[in-house]
Amino acid sequence: MKTITYNDKTYNIPKPFNECDFGNEPTKEVTLTNRFSGESATVPAFAVAIYDTILGAEHTQNYDLMQKGLSWFSRNFAKEYMVLLD
């Protein structure tokens, strides 16, 4: 398990997401837009990597991976989850 500290909170990144590429600045904030509603939310780059994995898993019909990502995102970024993925 990998841990990242962002805004004075420690996030545990479980397998398989701990192998995502979080970039050089995993805590850099990025604004994402919901592809259906057009609403936006700002999350750190490490959450963007997990978000991208969720969308990729949906595209490849890997629903187990998708559900793991959705569960992690909803637990750790509840407000952003409601905007981006709900």
Identify the notable features of this structure and list them briefly:
86 residues; alpha+beta; two-stranded antiparallel ribbon; 3 helices; globular
Characterise this structure:
With 86 residues, the chain is of the alpha+beta class. It contains 3 helices and 4 strands, in the order E-E-E-E-H-H-H. The chain has helices spanning 45-59, 63-76, 78-84, and strands spanning 2-6, 9-13, 29-33, 40-44. Strands 1-2 form a two-stranded antiparallel ribbon. A hairpin with a 6-residue loop joins strand 3 (29-33) and strand 4 (40-44). Helix 2 (63-76) packs across helix 3 (78-84). The mean pLDDT is 96.
Low-confidence runs = none
Q: Strand arrangement, largest sheet?
A: 1-2
In whole angstroms, how far apart are the ends?
26 Å
Radius of gyration: 12 Å
| Mean pLDDT over the full residue set | 96
